[in-house]
Amino acid sequence: MPKLVWTEDRLSEAAMMWKRGALTSEMAAHFKTSEDSISSLAGSRRDLFPHRKNYFRRAAAPVRKEAPQIEIAPSYPDRVIRKTVAGVMVTLPRVVFIDGPYRGAAE
Question: Could you give the CA distance from residue 51 to residue 42 in angstroms, rounded to a whole number?
């Protein structure tokens, strides 16, 4: 197809068709050009061709439920469980000046 020169008259006619809700395929047939030409014109001249509602909506993302928090007890009395910055629970050695002395049943 030959390249279409967009004059002011053609631009205003295309803008009116766009505002009335004409499809890009209908506009391309009317102006004897490609749909890509209409799409790139609409993308580059948003003042004349405002965004239209997308009829191909994506399905809403499923809502993820948070897993229940499970309380984990350290397997050894000289260990503590800490949560890292990334949110991972890790078992580390007990530090007396941070955690205090172990006050278990063995004392």
Answer: 9
What does the alpha-carbon distance between residue 89 and residue 81 come to, in Å, rounded to a whole number?
6
How far, in Å, are 8, 24, 68 from residue 42 at the CA level? 14, 9, 49
Per-residue pLDDT band at 6 (split at 50, 70, 90) = confident
Largest CA distance in the chain: 93
Cα–Cα distance for residue pair 106/86, rounded to 1 Å: 34
Q: Are 6 and 41 in contact (CB under 8 A)?
A: yes
pLDDT in tens, 69-78: 777 666 677 7
Q: Residue ranges of the domains in the chain?
A: 8-44, 73-101
Three-class SS state of 51: coil
Cα–Cα distance for residue pair 41/34, rounded to 1 Å: 11
